[in-house]
Design a protein that fits this description.
Blueprint lengths: L1 H13 L8 E4 L7 E8 L2 E9 L9 H10 L7 E5 L4 E5 L14 H20 L14 H19 L5 H5 L1 H10 L5 E3 L8 E4 L2 E4 L6 E3 L1 H9 L8 H15 L5 H26 L5 H15 L5 H9 L5
Antiparallel strand pairs: 1-2, 2-3, 3-5, 4-5, 6-9, 7-8
Length: 318
């Protein structure tokens, strides 16, 4: 059992016998094939225990990626005990406060946290991995197309009960995948959104980075700026782009940025629909409407607007 593997690893790390009480507190996250708990033991700071399965290829990447990012001086949790052969890791506890926790605070007061997040992802984009360092396959046309299929299957067909074949056959989607897949120069987090950005000491720390790969930097930027959980207004999105420009001395080309936002939002919609239908987690249902509205804004006056219009219209807005 995952918790038993974490418990035995914790005892091994702490050097205590079975009579010492150790408490495992579940941490609920959307990660597939992973068990994540907070470990409490007498006379010791809490730490995080993670057990993973082979359900997803990127799960086994967590430890090597964490070590690489730490060496590159990015803010990520430290690996305090590596027991990879048992698919267990003990990790520094950064707390429970994520960027999403600040959603109800004034946008202006959140800007220092966004700056911290952008500074981290800017450093990530230019970090140099060793030539022999194993990364997940780079974002290419095939992977972008897989994300679109995820959207077609889980949101359009399973959640809405609509026919997705016209979308699959529409060349605007394959053209988008081909266009975005022509370049993969930078390292990208791939899930750079508010739940994966923890706040500690007024700084942003990244988690759930095991999907690290090469891709377009605009994808990570769009993931946060068009984050359905935070639901930024158009003015707030513009302010975030200006903040990024202040950090990077440039801003993404508008049409390319909107293409990445559209691609990311389709992926998110597929994920939300899959979680609601197949895991029964209703927390994600309201975010489907939000992501659909944002996708409508990102695709307005683009070739994607017309084919997506019937789908987005079928998702009721509150």
């Amino acid at each position: 059992m995952p918790t038993e593997a974490i418990l035995s690893t914790a005892r091994q790390y702490l050097g205590v016998d079975p009579t010492v009480p150790i408490t495992l507190l579940p941490i609920k996250r959307g990660a597939s094939g992973r068990t994540i708990v907070r470990v409490k033991a007498p006379n010791h700071e809490t730490f995080i225990g993670i057990h993973w399965t082979e359900e997803r290829e990127d799960n086994s990447q967590f430890i090597p990626v964490a070590q690489f990012l730490k060496q590159a001086k990015l803010r990520v949790p430290a690996i305090i005990h590596d027991r990879s052969r048992h698919r267990v890791a003990l990790v520094e506890d950064l707390g429970d406060t994520d960027l999403l926790s600040f959603k109800d605070q004034p946008f202006s007061s959140r800007l220092p946290l966004y700056r911290s997040a952008f500074e981290q992802v800017d450093r990530l984009f230019y970090a140099k991995a060793p030539k022999d360092f194993h990364l997940m396959p780079a974002f290419d046309a095939q992977l972008y197309r897989w994300e679109q299929e995820y959207f077609f299957e889980h949101l359009v067909e399973d959640y809405l009960g609509m026919d997705a074949e016209p979308l699959r056959k529409n060349p605007v989607f394959s053209s988008l995948a081909e266009s975005l897949g022509t370049t993969a120069r930078h390292l990208v987090h791939r899930d750079f959104q508010s739940q994966n950005l923890l706040v500690k000491d007024d700084k942003i720390w990244m988690i759930d980075f095991q999907g690290l790969r090469r891709g377009r930097q605009e994808y990570d930027l769009a993931s946060l700026i068009f984050d359905p959980y935070l639901d930024h207004s158009a003015d707030e999105r513009e302010a975030l782009l200006e903040l990024w420009e202040d950090i990077a001395d440039e801003r993404p080309e508008a049409s390319l940025f909107n293409q990445c936002a559209s691609q990311r939002l389709m992926q998110a919609l597929g994920a939300y629909a899959n979680i609601v239908r197949n895991r029964g987690d209703e927390w994600y249902r309201p975010h489907i409407a939000t992501a659909a509205r944002l996708l409508g804004e990102a695709t307005a006056k683009t070739p994607l607007e017309a084919p997506l219009a019937p789908v987005l219209a079928a998702i009721p807005q509150p």
